[in-house]
Amino acid sequence: MEPDDVIAGVRNFMKSRVILTAAELNLFTHLHEKSSSVEELASALKLDIRALTRLLDTLVNFGMIKKHDTHYLLTDQGVTLDAHHPDTILPFILHLNTLWDSWSGLTEIVK
Questions:
Q1: pLDDT per residue over 51-62, tens digit each?
Q2: Is the pLDDT assigned to residue 38 strictly greater than 90?
C-alpha cells in the first residue's frame, strides 16, 4: 500500500463524522421536508450558523445535498437518510454513530 493510500484511508474518518453528525442532527429529514436556508435550519434546530454552514457545505461537496442560491436541499444520494423515506438507512447510520465512542476507545482497550 502506498503512503497516499494509507493517508486517504485514515482521513476517511472525517467524512464519516460529517455524515454521522448530520444524521444525528436529523438534517436530511429536515431538508427533504423543505429546502431551507442555513439561517432557517439553525433557528429551527438551535444550531450555530457558522458551524452549520460548514457542515452543510461539506455535505454539498460529498454530493448528499445541493445548494440552490441560499437554500439547501437533498440529492438522490442523501434522500435515504430522511427518516420518512420508505427505504431509509437512517436507523443503521445512527446505530453506527453509537459505535463511534466504542471504536474511539480502541487504543485504551488494546493497552
A1: 999 999 999 999
A2: yes
Spatial strand order of the sheet with 71-74 comes to 36-37, 71-74, 65-68
Cβ(30)–Cβ(40) below 8 Å? no
Burial class (CB in 10 A: 0-12, 13-18, 19+), 59: buried
The candidate with the shortest Cα–Cα distance to 32, out of 67, 94, 82, 97, is: 82
| φ, ψ (nearest 5 deg) of residue 105 | -95, 10
The pTM of the whole model exceeds 0.85: yes
Q: Do 72 and 35 contact (CB within 8 A), yes or no? A: yes
**Rounded (to 5) percent helix, strand, coil in the chain:** 65, 10, 25
